[in-house]
Amino acid sequence: xxxxxxxxxxxxxxxxxxxxxxxxxxxxxxxxxxxxxxxxxxxxxxxxxxxxxxxxxxxxxxxxxxxxxxxxxxxxxxxxxxxxxxxxxxxxxxxxxxxxxxxxxxxxxxxxxxxxxxxxxxxxxxxxxxxxxxxxxxxxxxxxxxxxxxxxxxxxxxxxxxxxxxxxxxxxxxxxxxxxxxxxxxxxxxxxxxxxxxxxxxxxxxxxxxxxxxxxxxxxxxxxxxxxxxxxxxxxxxxxxxxxxxxxxxxxxxxxxxxxxxxxxxxxxxxxxxxxxxxxxxxxxxxxxxxxxxxxxxxxxxxxxxxxxxxxxxxxxxxxxxxxxxxxxxxxxxxxxxxxxxxxxxxxxxxxxxxx
Length: 356
Hints:
Layout: H1 10-18, E1 21-23, H2 39-50, E2 54-57, H3 72-86, E3 92-97, H4 101-113, E4 118-121, H5 131-142, E5 147-152, H6 163-170, E6 175-181, H7 185-197, E7 205-208, H8 214-219, E8 222-226, E9 229-233, E10 235-240, H9 247-263, H10 269-285, H11 295-306, H12 325-335, H13 342-353
Parallel strand pairs: 1-10, 2-3, 3-4, 4-5, 5-6, 6-7, 7-10
Antiparallel strand pairs: 8-9
């Protein structure tokens, strides 16, 4: 059965609209590049205990290739079942949706059947489609599940989507949020303008996916014009691959940013300065020096060092750390001891691996 925004549990809906910290869930593989059924749920337990408000599964960080090896439904099911039994808190479950319309609709139906609350719609398979064709695609999937829009940067499979697209996208009734991840301020503003032009700012919540600009996205408002009047819009939450690592520290940072905004006070220079520090850490994790070659493997490497993963294996054997990335990660950790959570992981690792 289809799922619509008004049918969502009120606590989940209110939480999504208020803004949540949502990590993009990685894929745990063993040395044979098969699903590690012990460590995959251990990651979900880690994220729940770190205090996240949601989990995004089947997304870029989970590796889009899970669809080609029959792991899409098993991985989504494992995350949903683990979150349901591991914590009493309501966790917003976001399913990655990909492919052309037939595939994306099928994935939406799978996600709804597994109890997911929304779908993060990747448009990578629509890179050659017209704006009208993409909008029809989005409408078809939105008839099955509430949607998070997804503006993915071209370097990892996205495409340019103008403000006119985002206006039309925000006019779709079953759209609940947008993850903005173009890694580009001009393109980010296009999304904000489209949202405001659609008069959807009270219905569609903005989430940062700009891993290169996390802190300032959460702290600073956007002001755009509509019919000659200024409209202020804020990014309320984050759905980020970067937050799949050092997650307890990320949640604490998110809560710090949210409290600062809600207080209405002056933002401290120390808090503002965290933006550049977090961005520098992300440069190491996402392997910016090598054009994002090691962006997934970099997340895996942090989790491997902490003991959550056995190795950094990806479904594609060609995916691994970029040249010099390991040393860059060493420096990111050494320079930012207050922004990592190694002690938290070490204290709980055995329990997560044992299923507790």
